[in-house]
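Escalated from tier 1: alpha-D-glucopyranose holo job.
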Amino acid sequence: MKKQWWMETVGYQIYPRSYKDTNGDGIGDLPGIIEKLDYIAQLGVNLIWICPFYKSPMDDNGYDVSDFYTVDGLFGTLDDAKELIKQAHDRGIRVILDLVMNQTSDEHPWFVESRSSKDNPKRDWYIWQDGKYDKTGNMIPPNNWASFFEGSCWNYDEHTNQYYMKIFSNKMPDLNWENPKLRMAMAEMSKWWLDLGVDGFRVDAIAHLAKDTTFKDSTMNVKPGHYAPDWRKFSNRDRLFDYLAEFHDEVLAHYDCVTVGEVGGGAQVEEAERYAGYRTKGFNMVFNFDHCWKNGAFEDEGRTKGKLTTDVIDLKTTLERWILGSESKVWMPQYWLNHDHPRVVSQYGDIGEYHRVSAQMLGAVLLTLPGTPFIYNGEEIGMTNVDYESVDEFRDVWVRNFVPSARKRISEEQILTHLRRASRDNARTPMQWDDSENAGFTTGIPHLKTVGNYKTINVKNQQMDENSVLSMYKRLTQLRLNSDLKDVLIYGKFRLIQKEHPDIFAYRRYVDTDEVVMIANFRDTKVMFDFEYKKYDCVCSNFENSGSDFLPYEFRILRAKGV
Ligand code: GLC
Ligand code: CA
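Tier 2 regenerated the structure:
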């Protein structure tokens, strides 16, 4: 493994829509991010990933792009984007954009052409198929594959009497990567942004570019009238790796950039190497989702009342599986949440009495794991899930699709509980800057309701408090990037300690003669953890304690004596 600049970064993900609004329209914008660059620099991160700000009808908040070369008016102008890149660079912060390669908006001129007739030259830039007929002679989709956003992954288009494929919403037709012209158009677009000065990309939904082009039905068992969530039909398929190698040769090989692919659809750790191995022509790292739902919130669908319990053994062994499986083969990104997940303090921490210490503990774990950590905006102050009282307050397209079908199997109360625990809107509420109306995010009406706790949980309060979550995140980024622990925290090996412990997540990081030990209590109760404490000094913690009894959500970062 060759050391690279992007291994020595801490990333910070920004959801522009909800970060900072400067013109009072209730939607965050690029000038808002520029305004906050000093704050971001003070946090100690040196890389930002900005979610899509391309021109878009915003069916899926910008992941439905209608022009890759234009900044959507809601967010600002191309000049704002250039200014943002420049000002970030002036502060030593690299900038990566979200590259959306799997689909466009149905309002993208390519799709408008494609849909216009069967012999249009762009017809084959998307995936069109004839429908089938059921026993009663009704036309049905070409096959039984499900979409990620409920229902079929096909949408009928009256104009040419065919179906187009769309694994997300109806307004997001999938591109046909089998078509070399389309592939070249995507390569050109990517180069255009790199030439403009961006430092790389988070590559959206990359696992899905190649589909099973036989389009045969899934043999998965599903109830009649239901679609099969057989993600392998369009995820992590062999053909995809040819596209990636080509993209690498055409684009990535010519720039000193970093790429982080998002690989869903059940990617296994062995596959990470195919995407991003040190010897692979592909990306530099890939995000997987395996550690994200270890309190069972997703499957539970609001059926269990009260607080869910984190399965700590499952959480740590899942992380371990990826970390050890990647060792010497592929560099990993680490994260607790992104814009598609609940807030981590609500999920694995506590939002009552232990809010502050549990958010700090989670930050400390994130920043001491191997790989490149990504903090999601608001995580650094312990922002929480929404407190909405009605399903109507949610805005996400996934929620709009989920609710009607969920009503057939769970109660209204369960739906609301589920959305408050699992919906993507939890991460998309306005950033909580201060205790003024709407948390200082906007002077207008925010596009999504602000969480009520902004009066206490906000940046301004925490900037003045050296014991705050924010102050802890600053200490942790310093430890990782600017202290003599840098080497061991970035490049050290990782081994779990007392793997079977049901409540404590503990591990060693070591390199040459240096060794750091992290011990974190994931429970809201006191927990015992026997360890050879005498051999270590404490370098960072959220309590003053040195015994083997760990207080609720206590963590300690220890370093071997005599290094
Ligand atoms: C990714 C994005 C998500 C989006 C989807 C479709 O999973 O993170 O927000 O809805 O891709 O582009
Ligand atoms: Ca705005």
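The longest helix spans residues 180-195.
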